[in-house]
User: Fold this.
Amino acid sequence: MTNTVRWGILGTGRIARDFATALRATPGAAIAAVASRERATAVEFADEFHIPLRLAGYDGLAACDDVDLVYIGTPHAMHAENALAMLAGGKGVLCEKPFALNRAQAEQVVALARSRRVFLMEAMWTRFMPALDEVKRILASGVLGEVSQASADFGFAATGGPDARLFNPALGGGALLDVGIYPLSITAYLLGAVEAVRAQAELGPTGVDLQTVFTLRHAGGALSTCACSLKARTPGLLTLSGRHGQLRLDAPFHRPPTITLMLADEAPRVLPTPYLGNGYVHEAIEAQRCWNAGLIESPAITHEQTLHLMGVLDEIRKQTGVKYPGD
Assistant:
C-alpha cells in the first residue's frame, strides 16, 4: 500500500484505544485526529497515541481536511448519528458493531453513503481474521461433507449499575447487540443468509437482555444455535458440523488463535491461525484498501449484508421484548 490513509478516531473509550493501537501496526495508516465530547479526554488520548489534532466535539472531525477515514467507537446508540455526520462531511466511515440500533437507522446511514459515494463499512473485525479464510478454504474442500449445523456462544459476567453502558437501554445495552452480534454475523457468513429465527431471552431490571439464545435457519437449509450472555462466562466456541466431522474456531472464536479439525476416526488437527497486532489490523487494512480503490463498500462485508443482519437483530428483539428509545 503506497498511499497513506489519514485516520480520525471518534470516541476515546476502550474499543477506540484498541483500534488506535492496531493502527500503529497497520501499513499505510496514520492517525491524524481524535475527537471526544470533552476536550480533556481528547487531549489525554492524543498524548497517549501521539495524535496531532485533538478535537472537542465531533463536528470538527467531520470538517477536518486532514482526515480521510473515521473510525467510530462511541456507544451503540450514537453510531448512526455519528456516521451520518461523518459521511455528510465527506469522510469515509468504519463504524463499530453493532452498526446501529436498528435496521431503520442503518438504512439511513447506508443511503447517505450511497448518495454521497463515500466509503462505509461495518467494523466486524472477526470477518477479516486470517482464521476465517482458512475456515472457508476447509469448508470448500469438502472434507467435512455437507455442513448442516453450527453452534456458537459469546458470554461474560458483566459488572456495573443500571446506568452502565451494558445495562442502559438509552445506550443500546444488552447482550444481543454487544456480543450476540458475533455468533449471528459469523454463522451467517459461513452458512448463508438467515431465512428464519427463533429467540428467547432473560431481561434485566432495565429492560435490556441479560442473555439471549436464538436458533437460525440459513439459506440452503443449515441450522445454527447461538447464545450470548452478560451473566455467564461461556466457552466462546464456534463449531461447524458436517457429515464427516467438525471444524471448531477455538476460544475466543471471535479472535481465534487456532482452529481444530475433527474428522471421524482421525486424531484432531489443530491449525494455528495467527493474526497481525491485536487483530483489528486486518479490518483496518481492508478499509484502507477500499478507500484507496475508490470503493464505497467492501465486497467482504457489503451494505446489504449489514442491513440484513440489522433486520435479524430487530426480529430477535421483537420476539424477546427488548426496546430502545431509537426504535
